User: Fold this.
Amino acid sequence: MSLKKWQCVLGGVLCVLTFVACDSQQQATKAPEPATPPAQEAAPAVEKQIAYPLQGKAKEVAAGGGFTYVLVAAPAGEYWVAVPETEVAVDEEVTVNEGQFMQNFPSKSLNRTFAELIFAPGLAGKEPKTANSDPHAAAAPAASAMPAAAGGADFQSAMQQEGSGTATPAASEMAMGSGGKVVVPFVELKMEKATGDNAHTVGELFAKAAELNGKKVRVKAQVVKVSPGIMGKTWLHLQDGTGEPGKNTHDLVVTTAGSAEKGDIVTVEGVLAANKDFGFGYKYDVIVEDVAVSR
Assistant:
């Protein structure tokens, strides 16, 4: 092969090698495409399981809209709590009875939104500044448990004024009955009726409420909910398997100076009040007050 042909072949090989080298360098220096992470669904909000009564120190205190907001530093964590306007000092030890857990509550008076807030009826051992309060509020959700805010409006109006109705109540363990009262869900029970001339079942008390109004009654039932320390009394929800859940006549509320535990089978005796209205839209079709409790 002549020298000229060798030069042509060698030139062609060099061109090929140069092209390959350049392409390899480009591949090496090219930035890798970022991996696209798979779409993730947002985790649903989970309601906190709060052990009541909630006890702790008042870390912060603010007032507005007829409510007192307290940041309670409890052993399990810090919780913002809203109660009817009450005198509370920073660093004071407080006890919060059961309330309703709210999410994203916008307080207009404080110009802030609380990611998590517990609306409670009050602080144990402390009277609200409002003239009237709901004595059974410890067992009620926020929408009806709270006494009136300043100006005499009921709680619904006060909450709308304070939060514009945009707060999200977390799922409540309790159902709301007529007239705003709290009704614990129906429990399947079978038990013997109390003895005595004034003995009745829970269902009978509701059916004969007008007839029994102002009279002493006696009933045997199971304690399904206990709310202690409200206005110096303990509030009990009693059921015996009678009554109609659809009409909320299965759950009887009584007040007592005595004590009982959830699950206890008790016989109570006291004076029945029909259509008892505590004001602020909080009314009981039937309630038995100041009962004596025996087992």
Notes: The first helix runs from residue 3 to 29. The mean pLDDT is 73. The CA atoms of residues 20 and 26 lie 10 Å apart.
